[in-house]
Amino acid sequence: MDILRPKTVPLSEETILWFEFLLKPNLLTKHLTKPLPDPSPTDLITQFLSIAPENQNQNELNSPEADSMNKNEGLKYSKKQLALKILALKVAAFLRWDLDVLEKNLPLQKQVQLLSDLCSVTAGKAVNLPLSLVHECPIIGPEGSKHSLNFALTLYHRWVLRAQVIRGSAAKSMKPFNVVTGVQDTTPYTMRDDSFINSLEPFTNISIDFLNQVIADPEPFRILTYDSFVALDAHVDNVQQRFDMAITISKAELKAQIHYDLCLLYLYVQKYELAKQNILLSKENFEQLKMEYSKKPLQSFLYCSVDEEQLQGYMLACGVTGEPIGLLQRLNESVVNHYSDIVAILKEDNVAREIPMTQRKILELNVEGFVSMGSPESHTSDQKELELAVVALNAIRYVLDGDDLLGSNIALQKYKHQQLKLLELMLQYGDEQYEEFSLSDRELLKKYFIQTISLMNNANGIEPVLRTYQKLVSYQEYEDLKKQKMKEDVQFTGIAVQADWMVCESKMLRLDVGTYERQLITCTHASGVRKMLVKLAGTNPTKPLWSINPSWSIPLSMKQLLVSLQRGFLQDFAYILVGKSRELAAKKDYSAAIALLTCLKSETTRPELANNPVVLKLGKMAAWEGLLIQIQQVLDEWPKKPTDQAQFIRNCKQCLNASTSNDVAPRAKILEHCAAILLNLNDWNSLLTPDKRYPALELSAAIAQAYLDIEKFKGTKKTNREAWDLILQMLINQQGSRRHTSDNSIMLQQFFCKLRDPVVISIVLSLLAKLHNILKDETNLDLNAEYMFLWPTNVNNPAIYNLKVLDETLNNLLQQSLKYYPNNIPWIKLKGDFEFANGNFEVAMRYYVTALVSGSEFCTIHLQRPLIDDFIIRRMIKCSSNLGCFMQAAVLCQFLDETDYGLAFKSVSEKTSSFSDAMDSYYSCIWDPTLLEFIVNWHFKKGEHKRRLQAITYLGQLELNANNNEEIKREAAAIRKTRFLRSLARQYML
């Protein structure tokens, strides 16, 4: 029941009729100040404006009441109309003109009527909306007020901008434009409302200009209050409004609100840079506003209705964190702007030390190149000054970081012809920031400058500089430094010049022994080792010299051989050279390590030792150890091949043959390395007759045979079981032989780590992948690799094999192989399959995208078969769906030979909370009109008006016309495929 409209039935005593608010204005104040007034303030506004309709009946205007109409001829309202409108405006003023409240609770027509009444009353004449030229200062009636009309127009233009934003939100959600609670004549969002707001769009720029003028206006901005509107009195013919009761607010409050409204509009029309500028200004003024009101704790904002949480949210939407811009970002912006303000930034960083020193060094090199090119933006002298300034500031930073040797001293050497100028700049910047540096920083700089000045000889040039800048190094300190550098005749006492100093012989011997032992440990040349051994001979007969350093370790077989030698020089010399060679090899100093072993080999061929079989055996062992280090060097420097590859291969073959002869047998590690390097160098035939005592050699022979089978049968199907059976045996996980199985698996992985040749690696990967598929026994998770036709299709009793060890071996081999061949497409796909099988969908997607990017020459050529096929596409679709990126999955459905519309439609219809699946950003990647049509209809059902329009725009592109020839369609699809692939690369690879 409408409690404000008079009824024919009796009413309760608490019921207030609408004309009672006219008769007793204090009743309105009393009602509004209740904790929960019923009806609410917005309900009252709706009722007041409904009782006073906008279109006045002509009979009413000609009635006797018209004779008592307001004397102001500008306002064509009857007294009843004007009285009700004044009451509505008083209620709006009580709400502080909060557009958030008014827009949420008033129908659109009532919002327009309220703003029109406000403009009319403040102007003293009738004003109709929408307005187009109100910013040109319309004529004000005799009872109008300029500052009050300015306030009304500001509120109206704010509403114009906000109405378009709200209309867009309402169109997306397909909900009523305004939800008014408790009012019976609520008008939902209608086509009439839509057409009215459409009519406002041509005036948007006018509203923006007006609001910017208000912000820039130096005159104070005054807002109308509750007391500014005076209710009409039946006993007074002409009631004047109290516009002088308006309150002046600060510019910060006005700017915070207007910049906030402008940001909302710019976000809506996708002008993100302007939105960012306005939200930053709104934030800045809002902070100032909070400081102003902090002095009045009991008073709330008079005009600004900005919510701080929403303000922060819009800042994030504009890409602003609210934190001050860091020095590194400012540095990057300065580089883009031809190094503007670079000196100030570097000076700040010398105190804050935010920018990494590597970035500052890169900047120094860039400025040097910038100056050398002679950029036309500045004069040559200014450029040179800029270069020296950057160098000087970097040198100061080096000193403060405690790294003056690498930075400042090198800079002084590099610019030795301008050394004095560089030092002057360093002293100048040091003095300018003296107060900002800490005490420890000042001490570091002072110490550095004193040391630097003491090394410089240009005294005449330094003195004027030190007289100018004396905070870090005073001129008096410089004078003292000069006196210290002067040559003086120092008189020594007699005892100081005596030559007969005596030192205890025992102490002298201990000092010498310690010195020689230290030199023996540190020297890296065989001649130095020989010299130190001669000096240390006989110093400690009970202790061998090779035992002074526990870090020297040699193979067990060689150690047993050396222990059997007679105690003496050769034993120590051989042990130390082998130990040092292994140390150097571990540090990747291969040439020095090989030189030591070569020297040992030469030592064993001396004539007096030629008839000693132990020494001959030692020489062969040294040769094998030298070969091992050569192999390690080749493996480490792959794909660089050995200098004399033919001789290198002969040495490896000789080593393998020595394992089966009665000669000195190399140890197992050397044999494994020889077999691996011969595989990598494709010397297949030398591996076919292995020593079966060594599993690695047997496996090498099996891999070589597999390759020969490929060559012999030209890729046709021929099952190879040798390598298959060997690896299966190493993966057995029987309870009674766990330790043996573990040793085999470790040996297997260590051997695979030595593989470098792509063909060999592909053969091994195919074997492991095929075995993985059989043991995993899930068709949907199968791995795909080259040469899988070589291997059997089943395994007897698969439960006895260790799938975990197989996974680890396969993964390690893949990672190592991709390190040497990062663009091998089949291996990258296999790595993606492996991660997919283990449920790591994001990692799998990264490798699939990497394969497509590498195969398309980094998105420069179109995707083609066999690079992309239905198998990899379906796996990418599965990965995208599991990651919540359903729109990506829908786009990928087009890549199939036959588009899977069912899956695509299902993917589009899925709801997701993933921020990475921005739906409308992928419309430009869709070339299938059927899919676009489904998206258009789907947005229509969801009420997403803006997205629907975007989809329609892409659907209407000429190259997607169904009547185009096949060549145009293929080119359109290829372009969109590449665009989508680049989008995936940015998401998963960067």
Automatic annotation (TrEMBL):
Main subcellular location of this protein, as a coarse class: nucleus
UniProt entry keywords in alphabetical sequence: Chromosome, Nucleus
Tree of life domain: Eukaryota
Pfam families in alphabetical order: TPR_INTS8
Every INTS8 TPR repeats domain range: 511-988
Subcellular compartments: Chromosome; Nucleus
InterPro entries: INTS8, TPR_INTS8
Similarity comment: Belongs to the Integrator subunit 8 family.
Official protein name in the record: INTS8 TPR repeats domain-containing protein
Organism the protein comes from: Aedes albopictus
